[in-house]
Amino acid sequence: MKGFAMLKIGETGWIEKEKPQLGPNDALVQPLALSPCTSDVHTVWEGAIGDRHNMILGHEGCGVVAEVGSNVKDFKVGDRVMVAAITPDWNSVEAQEGFPMHSSGMLAGWKFSNFKDGVFGEYFHVNDADGNLAILPDSISPAEACMISDMVPTGFHGVELADVRFGDTVLVIGIGPVGLMAVRGAALRGASRILAVGTRPNSVEVAKKYGATDIISYKDGAIDAQVLELTNQKGVDRVIIAGGTVDTFAEAVRCLKPGGIIGNVNYLGGGEFIQIPRVEWGVGMGHKTIVGGLMPGGRARLEKLSSLVSSGKVDVSLMITHRFEGFEKVEDALYLMKEKPRDLIKPVVVL
Ligand code: NDP
Ligand code: ZN
After folding, report:
1. pLDDT per residue over 11-68, tens digit each?
2. Considering only CA atoms, which residue is closest to atom 12 of ligand 1?
3. How far apart are CA 20 and CA 1, in angstroms?
4. What angle do CA 138, 23, 302 make, to 5 degrees?
5. What pTM was computed for the model?
6. Residue among 159, 173, 219, 267 to mutate when testing ligand 1 (max atoms within 8 A of CB)
7. CA–CA dist 6, 8 (Å, integer)
Protein backbone atom coordinates (compact mmCIF):
# COMPACT_ATOMS: atom_id res chain seq x y z
CA MET A 1 0.00 0.00 0.00
CA LYS A 2 0.99 3.64 -0.49
CA GLY A 3 1.51 6.11 2.34
CA PHE A 4 2.74 9.65 2.88
CA ALA A 5 5.62 9.45 5.32
CA MET A 6 8.29 11.14 7.34
CA LEU A 7 11.51 9.81 5.72
CA LYS A 8 13.67 11.39 8.43
CA ILE A 9 13.64 14.64 10.40
CA GLY A 10 12.88 17.45 7.97
CA GLU A 11 12.03 15.18 5.02
CA THR A 12 8.76 13.73 3.74
CA GLY A 13 7.78 11.54 0.78
CA TRP A 14 5.52 8.82 -0.61
CA ILE A 15 6.48 5.24 0.25
CA GLU A 16 5.23 1.70 -0.39
CA LYS A 17 4.63 -0.61 2.57
CA GLU A 18 2.97 -3.93 3.34
CA LYS A 19 -0.61 -3.65 4.60
CA PRO A 20 -0.50 -3.70 8.44
CA GLN A 21 -0.93 -7.12 10.10
CA LEU A 22 -3.85 -7.48 12.48
CA GLY A 23 -3.85 -8.97 15.97
CA PRO A 24 -7.11 -10.51 17.26
CA ASN A 25 -8.33 -7.22 18.83
CA ASP A 26 -7.37 -4.93 15.94
CA ALA A 27 -9.01 -3.46 12.86
CA LEU A 28 -7.80 -2.28 9.48
CA VAL A 29 -9.43 0.91 8.20
CA GLN A 30 -9.49 2.48 4.75
CA PRO A 31 -9.59 6.28 5.07
CA LEU A 32 -12.55 8.40 3.95
CA ALA A 33 -11.07 11.74 5.05
CA LEU A 34 -7.79 12.87 6.62
CA SER A 35 -6.46 16.00 8.24
CA PRO A 36 -2.91 17.06 9.05
CA CYS A 37 -2.20 18.49 12.51
CA THR A 38 0.20 21.01 13.98
CA SER A 39 1.66 17.97 15.77
CA ASP A 40 2.59 16.39 12.38
CA VAL A 41 4.54 19.57 11.64
CA HIS A 42 6.28 19.35 15.04
CA THR A 43 7.05 15.67 14.33
CA VAL A 44 8.64 16.18 10.91
CA TRP A 45 10.28 19.59 11.07
CA GLU A 46 11.08 19.95 14.76
CA GLY A 47 11.92 16.32 15.50
CA ALA A 48 9.46 16.53 18.40
CA ILE A 49 9.34 12.77 19.02
CA GLY A 50 12.90 12.07 17.87
CA ASP A 51 14.02 10.66 14.56
CA ARG A 52 11.71 8.33 12.66
CA HIS A 53 12.46 6.66 9.34
CA ASN A 54 9.84 5.93 6.68
CA MET A 55 7.01 6.32 9.17
CA ILE A 56 3.58 7.04 7.67
CA LEU A 57 2.31 10.32 9.12
CA GLY A 58 -1.09 11.45 10.38
CA HIS A 59 -3.39 10.76 13.32
CA GLU A 60 -6.60 12.55 12.33
CA GLY A 61 -9.05 10.76 10.09
CA CYS A 62 -12.05 8.50 9.69
CA GLY A 63 -12.77 5.62 7.35
CA VAL A 64 -14.41 2.33 6.46
CA VAL A 65 -13.53 -0.91 8.24
CA ALA A 66 -11.70 -3.20 5.80
CA GLU A 67 -10.79 -6.09 8.13
CA VAL A 68 -11.29 -7.02 11.77
CA GLY A 69 -9.47 -9.39 14.14
CA SER A 70 -11.22 -12.48 15.52
CA ASN A 71 -11.99 -10.91 18.95
CA VAL A 72 -13.56 -7.68 17.64
CA LYS A 73 -17.25 -7.77 18.64
CA ASP A 74 -18.83 -4.44 17.76
CA PHE A 75 -17.43 -3.51 14.34
CA LYS A 76 -17.55 -5.30 11.01
CA VAL A 77 -16.23 -4.86 7.50
CA GLY A 78 -17.98 -1.94 5.77
CA ASP A 79 -18.77 0.06 8.93
CA ARG A 80 -18.02 3.79 8.67
CA VAL A 81 -15.94 4.65 11.71
CA MET A 82 -14.35 7.50 13.61
CA VAL A 83 -11.08 7.07 15.47
CA ALA A 84 -9.29 9.33 17.91
CA ALA A 85 -5.68 10.45 17.58
CA ILE A 86 -4.93 8.70 20.88
CA THR A 87 -5.63 4.95 20.86
CA PRO A 88 -4.87 3.57 24.34
CA ASP A 89 -4.45 -0.03 25.44
CA TRP A 90 -7.64 -0.19 27.46
CA ASN A 91 -6.59 -3.19 29.52
CA SER A 92 -3.41 -1.49 30.80
CA VAL A 93 -2.83 -0.59 34.45
CA GLU A 94 -2.55 3.09 33.50
CA ALA A 95 -6.00 3.01 31.88
CA GLN A 96 -7.38 1.38 35.04
CA GLU A 97 -5.88 4.25 37.03
CA GLY A 98 -7.78 6.74 34.84
CA PHE A 99 -4.91 7.72 32.54
CA PRO A 100 -5.42 5.79 29.30
CA MET A 101 -3.35 8.30 27.33
CA HIS A 102 -0.31 7.10 29.29
CA SER A 103 -1.06 3.40 28.78
CA SER A 104 2.22 1.49 28.57
CA GLY A 105 4.33 4.62 29.26
CA MET A 106 4.09 8.40 29.46
CA LEU A 107 2.21 9.70 26.38
CA ALA A 108 2.32 6.16 24.89
CA GLY A 109 -1.42 6.13 24.17
CA TRP A 110 -0.36 8.24 21.19
CA LYS A 111 0.53 5.50 18.74
CA PHE A 112 -0.33 6.76 15.23
CA SER A 113 2.73 8.28 13.56
CA ASN A 114 4.68 7.79 16.74
CA PHE A 115 5.11 4.11 17.60
CA LYS A 116 3.50 2.80 14.42
CA ASP A 117 2.42 4.05 11.01
CA GLY A 118 -0.20 6.78 11.04
CA VAL A 119 -3.42 7.26 9.11
CA PHE A 120 -1.98 8.83 5.91
CA GLY A 121 -1.90 5.40 4.22
CA GLU A 122 -4.25 3.54 1.91
CA TYR A 123 -5.03 1.54 5.06
CA PHE A 124 -4.32 2.15 8.74
CA HIS A 125 -4.20 -0.12 11.76
CA VAL A 126 -6.31 0.47 14.89
CA ASN A 127 -5.37 -1.39 18.08
CA ASP A 128 -8.07 -2.41 20.56
CA ALA A 129 -10.77 -1.73 17.97
CA ASP A 130 -13.77 -2.18 20.29
CA GLY A 131 -12.31 0.46 22.62
CA ASN A 132 -10.94 2.87 20.04
CA LEU A 133 -13.43 2.98 17.15
CA ALA A 134 -16.89 4.51 17.11
CA ILE A 135 -19.57 4.35 14.42
CA LEU A 136 -19.62 7.49 12.29
CA PRO A 137 -23.24 8.69 12.25
CA ASP A 138 -24.79 9.68 8.90
CA SER A 139 -25.38 13.16 10.30
CA ILE A 140 -21.62 13.82 10.42
CA SER A 141 -19.58 14.20 7.23
CA PRO A 142 -16.18 12.50 6.93
CA ALA A 143 -14.52 15.94 6.88
CA GLU A 144 -16.23 16.88 10.15
CA ALA A 145 -15.32 13.51 11.66
CA CYS A 146 -11.63 14.42 11.21
CA MET A 147 -12.14 17.29 13.67
CA ILE A 148 -13.46 14.78 16.22
CA SER A 149 -10.19 12.79 16.05
CA ASP A 150 -8.12 15.39 17.85
CA MET A 151 -9.25 19.03 17.78
CA VAL A 152 -12.54 18.52 19.64
CA PRO A 153 -11.24 16.08 22.28
CA THR A 154 -8.00 18.03 22.85
CA GLY A 155 -9.66 21.45 23.19
CA PHE A 156 -12.35 19.95 25.41
CA HIS A 157 -9.73 18.17 27.50
CA GLY A 158 -8.17 21.57 28.18
CA VAL A 159 -11.57 22.59 29.56
CA GLU A 160 -11.72 19.43 31.68
CA LEU A 161 -8.20 19.98 33.00
CA ALA A 162 -9.04 23.57 33.96
CA ASP A 163 -12.36 22.34 35.42
CA VAL A 164 -14.41 25.23 34.08
CA ARG A 165 -17.54 25.91 36.18
CA PHE A 166 -20.81 27.85 35.69
CA GLY A 167 -20.17 31.56 35.55
CA ASP A 168 -16.37 31.36 35.41
CA THR A 169 -14.29 33.95 33.63
CA VAL A 170 -12.00 31.90 31.40
CA LEU A 171 -8.87 32.85 29.49
CA VAL A 172 -8.07 30.71 26.42
CA ILE A 173 -4.51 31.32 25.20
CA GLY A 174 -4.23 30.37 21.52
CA ILE A 175 -7.13 30.11 19.11
CA GLY A 176 -5.87 27.72 16.49
CA PRO A 177 -8.27 24.78 16.11
CA VAL A 178 -7.36 23.37 19.56
CA GLY A 179 -7.94 26.68 21.34
CA LEU A 180 -11.15 27.27 19.37
CA MET A 181 -12.50 23.98 20.68
CA ALA A 182 -11.45 25.06 24.19
CA VAL A 183 -13.49 28.24 23.69
CA ARG A 184 -16.51 26.20 22.58
CA GLY A 185 -16.06 23.70 25.43
CA ALA A 186 -15.78 26.50 28.02
CA ALA A 187 -18.95 28.10 26.65
CA LEU A 188 -20.80 24.77 26.89
CA ARG A 189 -19.57 24.34 30.47
CA GLY A 190 -21.22 27.65 31.37
CA ALA A 191 -18.40 30.20 31.40
CA SER A 192 -19.82 33.71 31.71
CA ARG A 193 -16.91 35.43 30.02
CA ILE A 194 -14.28 33.99 27.68
CA LEU A 195 -11.17 35.99 26.83
CA ALA A 196 -9.43 34.52 23.79
CA VAL A 197 -5.83 35.19 22.72
CA GLY A 198 -4.84 35.09 19.04
CA THR A 199 -4.49 37.24 15.93
CA ARG A 200 -5.44 35.33 12.78
CA PRO A 201 -8.63 37.00 11.49
CA ASN A 202 -10.50 33.76 10.64
CA SER A 203 -9.72 32.35 14.06
CA VAL A 204 -10.85 35.54 15.76
CA GLU A 205 -14.14 35.47 13.87
CA VAL A 206 -14.78 31.80 14.68
CA ALA A 207 -13.77 32.31 18.33
CA LYS A 208 -16.52 34.91 18.64
CA LYS A 209 -19.04 32.53 17.05
CA TYR A 210 -18.01 29.85 19.57
CA GLY A 211 -18.56 32.18 22.52
CA ALA A 212 -15.46 34.35 23.04
CA THR A 213 -16.48 37.68 24.58
CA ASP A 214 -13.10 39.47 24.42
CA ILE A 215 -10.20 39.09 21.97
CA ILE A 216 -6.63 39.76 23.07
CA SER A 217 -3.57 40.01 20.82
CA TYR A 218 -0.35 38.69 22.36
CA LYS A 219 1.39 41.02 19.90
CA ASP A 220 0.02 44.05 21.75
CA GLY A 221 2.00 43.39 24.94
CA ALA A 222 1.94 40.96 27.86
CA ILE A 223 -1.24 38.88 28.03
CA ASP A 224 -1.50 39.21 31.84
CA ALA A 225 -1.47 43.02 31.75
CA GLN A 226 -4.23 43.04 29.12
CA VAL A 227 -6.31 40.50 31.06
CA LEU A 228 -5.95 42.40 34.32
CA GLU A 229 -7.00 45.60 32.62
CA LEU A 230 -10.06 43.95 31.09
CA THR A 231 -11.10 42.39 34.41
CA ASN A 232 -10.69 45.39 36.73
CA GLN A 233 -7.42 43.89 38.04
CA LYS A 234 -9.35 40.83 39.30
CA GLY A 235 -7.97 38.27 36.85
CA VAL A 236 -9.59 35.06 35.66
CA ASP A 237 -10.90 31.88 37.33
CA ARG A 238 -9.52 29.47 34.76
CA VAL A 239 -6.91 29.45 31.98
CA ILE A 240 -6.62 27.01 29.10
CA ILE A 241 -3.30 27.11 27.26
CA ALA A 242 -3.49 26.04 23.60
CA GLY A 243 -0.69 28.14 22.14
CA GLY A 244 2.43 30.09 23.09
CA THR A 245 5.67 28.91 24.69
CA VAL A 246 7.12 27.93 28.06
CA ASP A 247 6.94 31.62 28.97
CA THR A 248 3.16 31.60 28.56
CA PHE A 249 2.78 29.88 31.97
CA ALA A 250 4.17 32.91 33.79
CA GLU A 251 1.65 35.14 32.02
CA ALA A 252 -1.14 32.72 32.93
CA VAL A 253 -0.15 32.55 36.61
CA ARG A 254 0.01 36.35 36.83
CA CYS A 255 -3.59 36.83 35.76
CA LEU A 256 -5.08 33.79 37.54
CA LYS A 257 -7.12 34.34 40.70
CA PRO A 258 -6.16 32.48 43.88
CA GLY A 259 -7.82 29.06 43.71
CA GLY A 260 -7.67 29.17 39.91
CA ILE A 261 -6.60 26.37 37.60
CA ILE A 262 -4.48 26.39 34.44
CA GLY A 263 -5.14 23.52 32.02
CA ASN A 264 -2.44 23.13 29.39
CA VAL A 265 -2.81 21.11 26.17
CA ASN A 266 -0.11 22.98 24.26
CA TYR A 267 3.00 21.11 23.11
CA LEU A 268 6.12 22.68 24.60
CA GLY A 269 8.78 22.33 21.96
CA GLY A 270 11.57 24.44 23.41
CA GLY A 271 13.10 25.79 26.59
CA GLU A 272 14.52 23.93 29.56
CA PHE A 273 12.10 24.94 32.31
CA ILE A 274 8.66 26.37 32.91
CA GLN A 275 9.02 29.37 35.22
CA ILE A 276 6.42 30.09 37.85
CA PRO A 277 6.47 33.70 39.12
CA ARG A 278 7.04 33.42 42.88
CA VAL A 279 5.06 36.40 44.10
CA GLU A 280 2.03 35.93 41.83
CA TRP A 281 2.01 32.25 42.81
CA GLY A 282 1.20 33.47 46.28
CA VAL A 283 4.84 33.01 47.42
CA GLY A 284 4.05 29.29 47.24
CA MET A 285 0.64 29.50 48.91
CA GLY A 286 -1.74 30.92 46.29
CA HIS A 287 -3.75 27.76 45.53
CA LYS A 288 -3.02 28.21 41.85
CA THR A 289 -2.96 24.82 40.12
CA ILE A 290 -1.19 23.98 36.87
CA VAL A 291 -2.19 20.78 35.03
CA GLY A 292 -1.10 19.63 31.59
CA GLY A 293 -2.39 16.64 29.70
CA LEU A 294 -2.62 14.66 26.52
CA MET A 295 -6.21 13.99 25.57
CA PRO A 296 -7.53 10.60 26.64
CA GLY A 297 -8.94 9.11 23.39
CA GLY A 298 -11.34 6.19 23.26
CA ARG A 299 -14.74 5.15 22.00
CA ALA A 300 -16.94 6.55 24.79
CA ARG A 301 -15.44 10.00 24.30
CA LEU A 302 -15.82 9.80 20.50
CA GLU A 303 -19.48 8.83 20.88
CA LYS A 304 -20.23 11.61 23.35
CA LEU A 305 -18.33 14.35 21.55
CA SER A 306 -19.81 13.37 18.19
CA SER A 307 -23.29 13.63 19.72
CA LEU A 308 -22.48 17.29 20.45
CA VAL A 309 -21.66 17.70 16.76
CA SER A 310 -24.78 15.82 15.61
CA SER A 311 -27.01 17.89 17.85
CA GLY A 312 -25.59 21.15 16.50
CA LYS A 313 -24.04 22.24 19.81
CA VAL A 314 -20.56 22.20 18.27
CA ASP A 315 -20.29 23.26 14.63
CA VAL A 316 -16.87 21.92 13.67
CA SER A 317 -17.34 22.90 10.02
CA LEU A 318 -16.45 26.50 10.97
CA MET A 319 -12.85 25.38 11.52
CA ILE A 320 -12.41 23.77 8.09
CA THR A 321 -10.96 26.58 5.98
CA HIS A 322 -9.26 24.52 3.26
CA ARG A 323 -10.66 21.43 1.50
CA PHE A 324 -8.78 19.06 -0.82
CA GLU A 325 -9.97 16.07 -2.83
CA GLY A 326 -7.98 12.89 -3.46
CA PHE A 327 -5.57 10.88 -1.29
CA GLU A 328 -2.45 12.33 -2.93
CA LYS A 329 -3.48 15.79 -1.68
CA VAL A 330 -2.42 14.95 1.91
CA GLU A 331 1.00 16.15 0.87
CA ASP A 332 -0.31 19.62 -0.09
CA ALA A 333 -2.45 19.73 3.04
CA LEU A 334 0.50 18.95 5.32
CA TYR A 335 2.68 21.60 3.65
CA LEU A 336 -0.15 24.10 4.03
CA MET A 337 -0.20 23.26 7.74
CA LYS A 338 3.56 23.82 7.86
CA GLU A 339 3.30 27.22 6.17
CA LYS A 340 0.24 28.26 8.21
CA PRO A 341 -1.03 31.08 6.01
CA ARG A 342 -3.01 33.70 7.91
CA ASP A 343 -6.37 32.45 6.60
CA LEU A 344 -5.79 28.82 7.67
CA ILE A 345 -7.53 27.18 10.57
CA LYS A 346 -7.69 23.55 9.48
CA PRO A 347 -7.31 21.74 6.12
CA VAL A 348 -9.13 18.48 5.32
CA VAL A 349 -8.57 15.97 2.54
CA VAL A 350 -11.61 13.99 1.40
CA LEU A 351 -10.71 10.79 -0.45
P1 NDP B 1 -2.06 26.72 15.98
O2 NDP B 1 -0.64 26.96 15.63
O3 NDP B 1 -3.07 26.66 14.88
O4 NDP B 1 -2.55 27.82 17.01
C5 NDP B 1 -1.70 28.38 17.97
C6 NDP B 1 -2.38 29.59 18.58
O7 NDP B 1 -1.50 30.17 19.56
C8 NDP B 1 -2.69 30.69 17.58
O9 NDP B 1 -3.93 31.30 17.90
C10 NDP B 1 -1.56 31.66 17.77
O11 NDP B 1 -1.90 33.00 17.43
C12 NDP B 1 -1.35 31.56 19.28
N13 NDP B 1 -0.02 31.99 19.72
C14 NDP B 1 1.15 31.93 19.04
N15 NDP B 1 2.15 32.46 19.78
C16 NDP B 1 1.59 32.89 20.94
C17 NDP B 1 2.10 33.53 22.09
N18 NDP B 1 3.38 33.85 22.22
N19 NDP B 1 1.25 33.81 23.10
C20 NDP B 1 -0.05 33.48 23.00
N21 NDP B 1 -0.60 32.89 21.91
C22 NDP B 1 0.22 32.58 20.90
O23 NDP B 1 -2.05 25.35 16.82
P24 NDP B 1 -3.18 24.24 17.06
O25 NDP B 1 -4.42 24.87 17.56
O26 NDP B 1 -3.25 23.33 15.89
O27 NDP B 1 -2.47 23.42 18.24
C28 NDP B 1 -2.18 24.05 19.47
C29 NDP B 1 -1.19 23.21 20.25
O30 NDP B 1 -1.81 22.04 20.74
C31 NDP B 1 0.02 22.75 19.45
O32 NDP B 1 1.17 22.93 20.23
C33 NDP B 1 -0.25 21.28 19.23
O34 NDP B 1 0.94 20.56 19.06
C35 NDP B 1 -0.94 20.94 20.52
N36 NDP B 1 -1.74 19.72 20.49
C37 NDP B 1 -1.88 19.03 21.66
C38 NDP B 1 -2.62 17.88 21.74
C39 NDP B 1 -2.86 17.20 23.07
O40 NDP B 1 -3.44 16.10 23.11
N41 NDP B 1 -2.46 17.77 24.20
C42 NDP B 1 -3.23 17.32 20.54
C43 NDP B 1 -3.13 18.18 19.37
C44 NDP B 1 -2.38 19.32 19.35
P45 NDP B 1 -2.09 33.55 15.92
O46 NDP B 1 -3.57 33.69 15.77
O47 NDP B 1 -1.38 34.83 15.94
O48 NDP B 1 -1.50 32.56 15.00
ZN1 ZN C 1 -3.65 16.22 15.86
Report:
1. 999 999 999 999 999 999 999 999 999 999 999 999 999 999 999 999 999 999 999 9
2. 174
3. 9
4. 30
5. 0.98
6. 267
7. 5
